[in-house]
Amino acid sequence: MLQFDEIHGPDGVRPHYQQLMDRLTGLGPAELTERFAMLESIFRTLGITFAVTGHEEGLERTWPMDLVPRIVPAEEWAHIEAGLIQRVRTLNLFLEDLYVGEQSAIKDGIIPRWVVETADGYVREAHGIGVPAGARCVVSGVDIVRDGEGTYRVLEDNLRVPSGISYVLENRVAMTRVLPVAFARHSIRPVNHYGSSLLRALRSAAPYAAPADPTVVVLTPGVANSAYFEHAFLARQMGVELVEGRDLLVDDHRVYMRTTRGLDRVDVVYRRIGDEFLDPLVFRQDSLLGVPGLAGAARAGNVTIANAMGNGAADDKGVYPFVPALITYFTGEKPILPNVATYLCWEPDQREAILSRMDQLVIKPVAEAGGYGIVIGPHADDETLAATADAIRANPRGYVAQEVVQLSTHPTFINGQLAPRHIDLRPFVISGETIEVIPGGLTRVALREGSLIVNSSQGGGSKDTWVVDDVATNDESSSTSKEAIGAVSPR
Amino acid sequence: MLSRHAEDLYWLGRYVERAEDTARMLDVTFHHLLESPPAVEATAWRELIEILYLDQVFEGTLDRPTVSGYLVTDTNNPGSILSSVARARDNARGLRDRISTELWEAINVFYLELAAADLTLGVEQRAYALLGDIKSRCQLINGVAAQTMPRDEGYRFIVLGLMLERAEMTCRLLAIRYARLVNTGERMGFHAWVSVLKSVSAYEAYLKSHDASLDPTRVLEFLLLDPAFPRSVLYCLRQVEQQLERLTADGLQTDVGRAIGRVRARAEYCDVSSIAGEGLDSFLEELQTEIYQVADQVDLYFFRSGADLQLHTVQSV
Q1: In B24, B62, B79, B178, which residue has its Cα 20 to 30 A from A62's Cα atom?
Q2: Does residue B39 form part of some domain?
Q3: pLDDT tens readout for residues B133-145
């Protein structure tokens, strides 16, 4: 099977990595080990951690960031960016069409109604709740992988409460401290405007009746949540309040927060809790995280909930295979970023084909996230495959099958040396009046050798991701850069 | 500011102050007993537990290893130093977007070091150094807060919590240890009064403003009323009043304003020579009660807004 490495091509180090590799080689293993330790201590002191559910020792782990950044050259990035904008624009249109529009995509036979309505994240109560400017996915995290030929493909869409952007920003800050010289030698697109872009998008999605300077809050489940650090980070970056459900109340279909000076009106809730916990009057009654009456306030047009309720109808893994057709339907364009080849277990012909070659496919439950429940055929034992086959027969809508994508590898600092590890990329896309992609995104890396599961909840790490504009490739400039490194670095 | 944030800041101030006071009082008791007859030991430990307001929950023998373990490392004791610092850190974590990064780091590093240290061994073998470290870490946190936080609502809630905690602590020290020394007519002399003063790090300050004769009434006056000493009850109450005046939107014409005005005036205009005799116990008891009332009013005024409204909404559904 073909294997694509991001740094080492058939002709040696790829040109856009040359400078970085020169610098890393120049520093030497001992120095690299020291800088790697520095990274760990930066994240520890700052308290940048995440919780791994179900792991005793990992209750609060320091964020694992790798020393070797990933570089995406500008021309590759332009392709990715255009593909993401096209895709997210489509998904916004599809959701708006589904919940407040004519449902034309369904009526015109682009996607079956039953597939949409059986999606785990489809929310009937969201019908009739519009979002200004149709920005239903204010923040999307679209997972992209690179296959054996080096083609970028979309692996999944995350349109509910995608997380990871704070790590993009913190990784960048840490990288500038640990490898300042390597950093200075590249022209790297900045990412730290994320907070201001997000705030602008959220404000543009405020209800029409809201004041010109609408009040935005970030709604978090609380300090025990694994992504709490990120929630606090975003509130700080935007300069808005970080609230919990108990800080909000709804009176007469208006949302207020409790403050030391009484009650303050809230116009936009950037929520980082799932639909099912949002409002105990509509969803789970046992939820203490949400706010009674919040959905009703949104329906009354008094508050915008971002991302909108019911977005799970568009990022369901069973809906995913229809996204390329939806792109053509809604935009009239050819999809720029292809999907990974995906088969539908509920189509009898495809199901038989899937069951006959399960050891060659990846089987994914449609409703799980975070890498849970995925069976990678070539790595699974017979028992697991048989159990999975039974599960598929019992609930065909519950699973999809995909060709194994041999994720690209990237040299990664493991035990004092560089070793190839599989990576993916989660860029972040903001929808407001326009759609904007933050340059780069979160590169996740499977730290276990050979593993294809990159999720941080499954022991994955991350890399700073550089979108680099001008990469000096000729020998002359790289030799001057070496002198300059000597001049700048005291070591 | 969000009520929840205000409440967490207020308690952050209280927890850090509590950890510092606990360390200091433990340190003083510890070293006082090294030079005292064994007979007074149990009394001294019981008083310490009472001053720290833990007499309702403490179950154990009144000896050095039990009490000091309980006060320093016991996580079942919500008032232990380790618990206080852990709670302060929990609050600070939830306040990451409200407090300076420097303040968060000071608290986080303090907690991580405490949690990693062998505190039991530390108390046993190097109590002076350990408790000294704890005190100076707490002072560092307050210093970092003072140097890095804008003088906005958030900072004021920290100071409010800290000063209320400190006022309560000094008041209980007087009500329990001072009162016993006076009431039993015990001729403890110099040694005992030094330990009372040192419990609130007032010994040097007292010597500077008075002299080494350590007259009980003057000690009382100093700890209760000295306008310049930052741990006297009056100083703390004035600080509380000052913070409240700026924090309340409607000034002090509120329940919380009246509560602090009442107790501050009771302290400020008391006649020390008369209460130093018979009326001491009842005076200090009333003073304590009124300080607790201020805390209750702070809770109602700042942290519970809209509580009535939500009740109504939920019922109407």
Answers
A1: B79
A2: yes
A3: 999 999 999 999 9
Q: Which domain holds residue B33?
A: 1-149
- Interchain proximity B97–A293, CB inside 8 Å: no
Q: Print the domain residue range for A65.
A: 8-335+405-485
- Domain with residue A365: its CATH number is 3.30.1490.270
CA distance B310 to chain A (A): 6
Cβ partners under 8 Å of residue B8, min gap 6: B91, B94, B95
Band the pLDDT of B195: cuts 50, 70, 90: confident
In-domain check, residue B19: yes
Q: Does A297 touch chain B (CB under 8 A)?
A: no
- Residue A227 at interface with chain B, using a CB cutoff of 8 Å: no
C-alpha to C-alpha distance for B274 and B251, rounded to whole angstroms: 34
**Which residues contact residue B105 at a Cβ distance below 8 angstroms, ignoring those fewer than 6 apart?**
A45, A46, A47
Residue B306 Rama label (left phi>0; alpha psi -120 to 50; beta): left
- The answer to whether the pTM exceeds 0.90 is no
Tokens of B275: 């209460």
Buried b (16+ CB within 10 A) or exposed e, A404-430: bbbbbbbbbbbeeebebbbbbbbbbbb
> In B, which residues are within 8 Å of A258 by CB distance?
2-4, 305-306
Contact B153 A249 (CB under 8 A): no
Closest CA in chain A for residue B2: A259
Could you tell me if B34 lies within 8 Å of chain A, comparing CB atoms?
Answer: no
